[in-house]
Amino acid sequence: MKRALYLLDKGRRQMTKFTQRFPDAALRILIVAVALIGGVLLLRSTLPPSLKSRKIQVAAATEREAARPIKYAGVPACAECHDAQYNLKKDGYHRNVSCETCHGPGAAHVANPMEVKPPAPRDRQFCPTCHAYNLSRPLGFPQISPVTHNPLQPCITCHEPHDPKPPAVPGECRACHGEIDRIKAVSPHALLDCTSCHVTPEEHKVNPRSVRPGKPTSRDFCGQCHRTDSGVPNVPKIDISTHGEKYLCWQCHYPHMPEVHGQEVER
Amino acid sequence: MNRRGFLGRLMSSAALGISAILSRKVPGWAAIAHEPAKSYGMGVDVDKCIGCGRCMAACKTENNVRPEPYFFRTWVERYVIKKDGDVIVHTISGSSEQPIEEARERDVLRSFFVPKLCNHCAHPPCVQVCPVGATFQTADGGVVIVDEERCIGCRYCIQACPYGARYLNPETKTADKCTFCYQRITRGLLPACVEVCPTQARIFGDLKSGASPLTRFTRMGKIHVLKGHLNTEPKVLYTNLDGEVR
Amino acid sequence: MNQELIERLAEISKQVTGFIYPNDLDVHWSIMIVLYPYLTGLVAGAFILASLVKVFNVKEVQPAYKLALLTALAFLLIAPLPLQLHLGHPERAYEIFLTPNPTSAMAMFGFVYLWYLMVVLLLEIWFAYRKDLILLAQRERPPMRWVHRALALFSNDVSEKAVEFDRKAVRAITIIGIPSAFLLHGYVGFIFGSIKANPWWSSVLMPIVFLFSAIVSGIALVLLLYMIITPLRGKQIDMGCLDKMASFLFYAVIVDFSLEALDFIHRLYESEESIKILSDLVLNKLMISLLVMQILLGMILPFAVMVLIKLLNLNEELRKLLYFVSAILIQVGIFSTRWNVVIGGQMFSKSFRGLTTYKMELVGIEGLLTAMVVLALPVIVLVVLIKVLPPWGDIEEKAAEGGAG
Fold this sequence. Notes:
Chain A is mainly α.
């Protein structure tokens, strides 16, 4: 008891010594600082946890994002009811084209099949979105000129959209290889048929990516016309035994637009 | 307790505190702190893209993006590389009001379309710079999302994205971007752009799955990413990507 | 509101050259974001000038010491305003304090700003003014009497010991204040310098260049204010103080100029991929703001003037005129520097193939008029501060003791 009183008194004396030695100005600043920090901490403690915890906020935001409404239903949803069209489509050229690519978003229709109907494009304006000729499109993708190809008739007149076989198997390579055809048409090789140089199995027209046409495999092939003693008139001639030793001709020269004497052909 | 003992205790508890803070699993550090079970990514085969723009339209429809050509979550660029070395690039049905310079086939060396979108990087600079942590990577799949209720609209993330994938949503005044159609993929559907692509130029999936079209994609092609030197570790993988593409 | 935005974007898209990513059309960080580094730069620079007096004992600058502190405070108080005006959701700005992202340099803003305001600037001003406030309060009538007593936190001690403690405290705080000022403005440079996506910004030198241009602009501002206010008070300009400030300005300009020249040479020499679009940017969009305003008018001309002053022995009137003109040119130059960094960095697309343009609105929350108001506000705040906390106390004393005239 006596010891406790003694310690308390010692503490009080030390505090007094401290405050006497501690500069008055600094003490005032210290009090203000403690009050400010205390006030801020107090304020912070009154805030709800959702304002202070990023974990809670992230979880809430993820949930909110996942709960957004859906507009496109997806192919399985269409196939559930429209299995006839689905079965027709699944082996044809459009097997990888989703229903909604052409018919637009279908979730509203799935929710309310009787009253909400997705559009079915039946005019000439729609199909050229993919099939109009464009030189940037991959080589071999079927492209037509929307102006000259069977003018004025809707595409579906000849092409069933769910199994779009052309009415006749394409006889001309240019049905799919429009870009190459256009380049070749203004080149010195314009009068050569594609099949003059490319041996093309019939199946290529049905399975274009798996069955490919061939390319000439020897220099003598081009030499038929281009060797010095070929006898073919109006054709550049070269000594094929010495010219461009190691390479096949088309490894340097572009056969669809061959240069003449190293110069581009000017129109 | 003597002074030395006290100082020792102080040091070790400080060290513990610092390491606890550093290893804390904060969403902004998700890329470094923990490995998510799934890792959503996309594969893009440039040789298959026909530039039809179905993906751009479907994305705007699905996600309520404004129709004007100034806000895109995904877009397709067209490259025309000419024999004289000129490279002409533009966004298809894009924002540029100027007439597109059309080239003749004879002048063109190479030409192709390149779909672009948010790369949902594994090491995203946008998540790193957000001052309030409003943009984050989801715990499942590492999809980068913006919390539109916390975003303060400072636009730092838009500056930090090297791919131009982000824009300021004029209605919510918050940053916005492709979310891999998070609301779709969590229900087992494909993102809208993948759904409507007619040539399977876009493939979506889990990069970590054993067998999926995306896994085959990464096995059979030489994979490229955009701006790999910036080490953002994009999860949108390209094959047949030309060197002129930025 | 949206219709206006769409129309504005449609206008801008007509002026695009080359290929830009479609989302790169709009310049998001507007003149408000140009103002922020300009204002915090002035704060840091003014503080560094003040620190020259208290830490490096450059006694000649003492007459401008308190003015420098008040200038720093006035600009610091207004600095967050352009940021708030720019945010898409200014009402959510508190989130920076509650849940800052530890990996974001911008998240530092709240804490660095608060630290600098409370622990450095306000504290230093308090200790520097404490005795003056007490003496002023003794001579005044209410209400100013109570204002000054409250500002002095009701302290009364003007003994030798207390004043000595004040002096030591000021010195200690200034020593902490110098790196704090570096941090206050340096982190802004880091915000830009750490963006690897943008080659115009991404650079190790960015925080350093920002800091030195801040020092240049801050010293020039205090010099300018001193030259304007002193005659308005009917007092003589202390030429020793002016010449010394101009000297430090000169050294700072040399360092700043060298750093910017280094950046320029480095870029050209390394000639990285982005050099083509950046050259395009400078020659087509930044001709006036960079080559003319930042470099010619803002750097080379003032530098040449100051070299002349150092070499020739010019009379007082001529020196004052030249200092005045140089200081104004420097302000224009540093403002242009900020413009070129912020706006310039957004005028080229991340595709590295095209340029867009910045259309500053006249009215509107991020418009030119708003910017001019934001620039005028710190001056108004400074006038109020000067009235409440007269920075001329020691000058009067010095004059009374028969000191410099």
